[in-house]
Amino acid sequence: MTPERIEEKKLKKGDRVVMHTCIESEEEPGKIWTCKSDQFTRGKGVFVQDSVFLEGYSGSFAPEFLQKVVLPSEDERMLAAQEESQQQINEWQEEAKQWRDEFVSKNDELGEAQQTIDRQREVLEFYANQEHWELPSFGRGQSMVTSDRGSKARELLKEGSDKA
Q1: What is the value of pTM for the model shown?
Q2: Residue 164 contacts residue 157 (beta carbons within 8 Å)
């Protein structure tokens, strides 16, 4: 590995890490630590070792027991949140469209039902009107109801059965 590549792998101040394969990692498994310093080398000869300081940890720590954690940047988190919000908006808009379509359909049905009720009322009023039962003047002929012979009622009933 080239010296540049080795330097690239070293931990830097602000890097986030988790401990692994050491006793300390068992105390707070999965805890994300922040490097308080750049990785540094100390000691001489056979006592040379790499270390790094961690925020909230007393003393330095050996980087070989640390794994760098790459968290999404604030921009990426904001973009992900925005995309999630947009998806929710799209779902709500689709749901609102379905509700609107159902409302329009029910409103149309209600309008048709009101027209049927109006026609029924008209026919009932025809048969309920006392004047329509009276014979014409001079007692000749038939009353309007007798002349109708129930055709208005049959027509209305036929309309209802055609829609069913």
Answers
A1: 0.43
A2: no
Angle between helices 74-128 and 151-163 (to 10 degrees): 160
CB atoms within 10 A of CB 145: 17
* pLDDT tens profile 42-71: 989 899 999 999 999 999 999 999 999 887
The angle subtended at Cα 76 by Cα 75 and Cα 81, nearest 5°, is 100
Q: What CA–CA distances, in Å, run from 39 to 19, 36, 43, 131, 158?
A: 15, 9, 14, 108, 91
Cα first-last separation, the chain? 83
Q: Which residues sit opposite 18 in a β-bridge?
A: 67
Geometric angle at alpha carbon 147, from 144 and 151, rounded to 5° = 100
User: Which tokens go with 119?
Assistant: 């026609």
